[in-house]
Amino acid sequence: MAQGIPNEVLMNATLIKDLEDVAKDAALLRGVLMRSQETPNSSELVTYAPFTLFPTPVPKAVFLQALAVQTPYNTLVDKISQDPDFLQEALASTIAVDDFTARLFRIHQQILKEGRSQSVVLGLNRSDYMLDQREDGSSSLKQIEINTFAASFGGLSSRMPDVHRAVVMFLVEESQRNIFDQRYIENELWKRNIPTIRKRFDNVCKTGSLDQEKRLFVDGQEVAVVYFRNGYMPQNYISEKTWDARLLMERSLAVKCPDISTHLAGTKKVQQMLARPGVLEKFFPNQPQVVEQIRATFAGLYTLDMGPEGDKTVIMALATPDRFVLKPQREGGGNNIYGSEICQVLEGVKDSTERMAYILMDKIHPTPFQNYLLRRHAPLKISNCLSELGVFGAYVRQGKDMVMNECVGHLLRTKSSEHSDGGVAAGVAVLDNPLLV
Length: 437
Ligand code: ADP
Ligand code: MG
Prior knowledge:
Blueprint: H1 7-10, H2 13-29, E1 33-35, E2 46-48, E3 51-52, E4 56-58, H3 60-68, H4 70-81, H5 84-97, H6 99-114, E5 120-133, E6 139-147, E7 167-171, H7 179-191, E8 196-199, H8 201-207, E9 209-210, E10 216-218, E11 221-228, H9 240-251, E12 255-257, H10 260-265, H11 268-274, H12 279-283, H13 288-295, E13 301-302, H14 308-319, E14 324-328, E15 337-338, H15 340-349, E16 358-362, E17 369-374, E18 382-398, E19 401-416, E20 430-432, E21 434-436
Helix pairs in contact: 5-6, 6-9, 8-9
This protein binds adenosine-5'-diphosphate (ADP) and magnesium ion (MG).
Adenosine-5'-diphosphate (ADP) binds at residues 128, 130, 144-145, 299, 325, 327, 331-333, 335-336, 361-364, 388, 421-423.
């Protein structure tokens, strides 16, 4: 294995067993925790969040490239969120067939019509990449997707002077297995004397209200910032009341992270539109070097809209399905379609507008590395692993001024190569660290 963990180490069973025990205890001691699947809403039983035994080699140059392109990506997401014409055009075909995106878009339109109550925008993104291995041995960084919703927080809270007058509300899921990831952020805020509260959609439905100035109140407390950790999947909206609650928060004076237009800017359809010739140039008119920096991380992305271009995509995908991933407009893992299943799905939808609910993407081929994945109830065995690098970005815009725009950290997730899809929460990938080589 090139520049990775030496084989003598990987194959030394006694050493691996010792390391396994030490590593699990270290994870518990350092607070790398998750609640158990059985009792996701209680801390009586917690366990380590799944992780790799060894760090995974990542070429230093590519790692630095991913960090460097993060602030341009923040700018891009923010510009898209402020460009209603672009969003409308980019999402038109998706809205026609995808009810979830259509509903989000309706909220976006209503907010535009009413005028935004809050000129401060807080963006927290995570752009995910895999290393595409070329035949000549070189590898290049290709974006999997950008997450504008439910990424991490970073140390930007001190930039929000308004916050001291009210609380930061974490809008959390019903099942709170990943609470420790959020508790870190809550603790950071508390350390800065910023109170946080944890509320569910249900709380907002029952007690949420706006006053005359559109200040948001939930359970009697004024909310300065809504940090959404829930609401990116259709199943999060269990009733019309939940949709009303989302609209209420969007209409309010509270700073939303993300706001509805930034949420829409993170859709896979927008990602595909950005890959079209001339689109990045529109957002960075006089900055060819920024356009180049961003474009270098794009994999091939293809439309499935009705018309000759989409027809070409269908033919290409049916001819060589193994070269591609078929993606619906969904988040959260486990939705993508691979291999022969692409043909099954496309055969069913290729002649109808239903196909517009998907985009097609080149499959990225990272070099597998051997590692051990530590996960509760799973016997330890060596696996061929693929890794995905995520880079966190944070920005604050007030009106037209970018007050801050920073790259605020990274995340490496690793999974066994037998799985095509999946994240940590989905139970497929585990936490890892880049070993820069
Ligand atoms: P989600 O919103 O569900 O996280 P992603 O686009 O991130 O959707 O895809 C989920 C997973 O599928 C990724 O974490 C990655 O493992 C795999 N995947 C997605 N796109 C590609 C691709 N183009 N090539 C290889 N693997 C991919
Ligand atoms: Mg993803």
